[in-house]
Amino acid sequence: MGAITTKEEIEEMLSEELQTISLSNLDEAPARRRAREAFKDTQLAIDHCLFKLPADGVKMKEVYEVNSRGIKIFSKSWLPERVPLKAIVCYCHGYADTCTFYFEGVARKLASSGYGVFALDYPGFGLSDGLHGYIPSFENLVNDVVEHFSKIKEQKKYQYLPSFLLGESMGGAIALKIHFKQPTAWDGAALIAPLCKFAEDMIPHWLVKQILIGVAKVLPKTKLVPQKEEVKENIYRDVNKRKLAPYNVLLYKDKPRLGTALELLKATQELEQQLEDVSLPLLIMHGEADIITDPSASKDLYKKAKVKDKKLCLYKDAFHTLLEGEPDETIIHVLDDIISWLDQHSSRKNKY
């Protein structure tokens, strides 16, 4: 009879495996897919409130398909099986992230509340093809997302349902860009710490920035953009959740690539000039202590957006990752705010 493996021994073995993964080269999609396959069951069993929410009656489907640019894209859907479908929610994930980890818990909660949820990993992120963490063109990335969500919305079973965008951090910027490309196609957008403007702590000194811009034109894939230590610490406020971060094995953890940083800087500069053009119903959520995306930019968006149907929720002392790294009560509060807003706007649309 073999020795009994204790919980501590299991955790130690897992931490060694996680360390091995973190030191592995995940630049290309096949390596990322192998890493996810090795850890997907473990991920869903971690001690995080998102994975303790009831998920019964949710039908999930994962798909790989090649888009019009010839890139293999990973996508996932979560559909309610036991309650009527109120609307569809299309999720845009943040920089460096994937739709297969923390969002899994969020999507299950939304689906069990009556929403069909759809998400994809952008090229260069998560399980989709492309060099990890590299955005050669923000415009092309937005077009890829528009193409994917448009195919979903055109399906007969969804085309008469209300449809909403849910965007987190960089995904908030993508959601707004989608709105500008399709001004009347969406019934609203819920934005979590949207990247409308980088906080000052995120932007290098002017001279360093000019040097980096010059180098980016020659070496756009180089991982060279400096990051302050306090910025890294602002991702998770809850210390225990910070310890769980390594389980997100698909997260891009290196320094930002020069080309990516340049594309994001250009995108935010464009967005700052377009806030007055936002015309769809908005729910804007931001942590008051966020030093990654600037809460003042969310206030500007709320103030300048020409739509009258808009709501701004600021969460006291909260950091950047409102749905992942906050204390349980804040995460549940934010989730409840999203579902309440969706319920209100879905029922309004369904009356007509």
Automatic annotation (TrEMBL):
One Pfam family it belongs to: Hydrolase_4
Native source organism of the sequence: Clitoria ternatea (Butterfly pea)
Name of the protein in question: Serine aminopeptidase S33 domain-containing protein
SUPFAM superfamilies associated with the record: alpha/beta-Hydrolases
Record-annotated Serine aminopeptidase S33 domain positions: 85-327
Top-rank lineage group of the source organism: Eukaryota
Transmembrane segments annotated in the record for this chain: none
